Amino acid sequence: MIRYVLAALLAAALVGLAGAALETGAGEASERQLEVAIADVESAAVALDGEELSPPDHPDPQRVVELSLPTESLVTAGVSHLEIEPVADADASVVRYTLSDGTTGRELIDRRIVYRDRADDRSTEIRDGGTRRLRLVLLADGEGDPVVVVDPPEADRPR
């Protein structure tokens, strides 16, 4: 009888340890996925910045980036909030994110990225995980300097 009780206690302890390991691994897996998504945005922005501004009658240089942000599952913690904020008076942006397990993180992107309005320093905000597309367009700001502007494609705009 004692053997059965000990076996049940051991099984319960192993299940508890496995659950804790899954939670820890889920946060780390999500952070790795976010690092890849942020690197994709940065490489597209850097590639755009290497191009010249278009004359008024020509299409502006652009790149479409498909972000695969983690969703809540047994092996990943979902994204609650992701924000790309342009740094004032610098050619850089800060990416901040919060996962569903409470983990927060920050990364620096080596290009200034603004949302929708080239003359405004609005942040790009994404709530929840899943696949998102961002269209990055190279435009001139109010002073004629190039700036990367995020404009979600029609299909991804809120209705």
Quick description:
The protein has 159 residues and is α+β, with helices and mostly antiparallel strands. 30% of the residues lie in helices and 33% in strands.
Description:
The protein is built from 1 helix and 8 strands, in the order H-E-E-E-E-E-E-E-E. By secondary structure, the chain is of the alpha+beta class. It has one domain (2-156). A hairpin with a 6-residue loop joins strand 2 and strand 3 (93-99). Mean pLDDT is 83; it is low at 155-159.
Overall pLDDT score = 83
Fraction in beta strands: 25-35%
Strand order of the largest sheet: 1-7-8-5
Helical fraction equals 25-40%
Structural class by secondary-structure content: alpha+beta
* Backbone CA Rg: 21 Å
Order of helices and strands: HEEEEEEEE
The number of domains: 1
Taking the sheet with the most strands, its summary is: 4 strands, mixed
What is the overall shape? elongated
Q: Number of helical segments?
A: 1
Low-confidence segments, given as residue ranges, are 155-159
N-to-C span: 64 Å
Care to count the β-strands? 8
Topology:
Blueprint: H1 2-49, E1 62-69, E2 79-86, E3 93-99, E4 104-109, E5 113-115, E6 124-127, E7 130-140, E8 146-151
Throw out a few tags for this protein.
single chain, 159 residues, alpha+beta, 4-stranded mixed sheet, 4-stranded antiparallel sheet, elongated
